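Q: Give me a protein?
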Amino acid sequence: MASFYYYCLLLVVVLLSAAGTSGRPNVDNVPEFARWLVHKGKWGVISFNSPVFVPQGYIASYADAGTGSPYFYLSTLDPVGMVVPTDARGSLTVSEISFDGCGGQEAQNPSCAKISLSSEEGAKAERALFKAHPSFSGFPKMNRTFAVYKLIVDEIFLVNKMAPSRSLSVEEYFED
């Protein structure tokens, strides 16, 4: 009888794991998988060079508005917002663990997908951001304290299986 309950519990765990990855594209369809990963994510780490501080990462919410280009709503008082006007280089890293738990894998496991979009940049973006993150609409707008930023993608680094990083050009990433 105990083994019956064990198998039922095992079945529930397998079904829940599968439910977390439903809609996950094939890892070998690199452009589709990369766009899916960016679209499914809601937040990531922005890394940037600072003239005042050591290089750092900053957690930020974003939305891609269905375009694959991440848009941020950042304060000019935050570290990223202070640096962007003088040095627009930066990158966004998103991990699959942030939205589906990677089936219980560690975040560093290569089968737990992660992507870094690197860059040397509206109304549509703001609507997409506010839809994905409703609390943004309550952020102060006085003196242009907050602004919409778009990451212009120049380079892509993707790991999504037990293999070296995946080769993907910016053109392939944005192709439909």
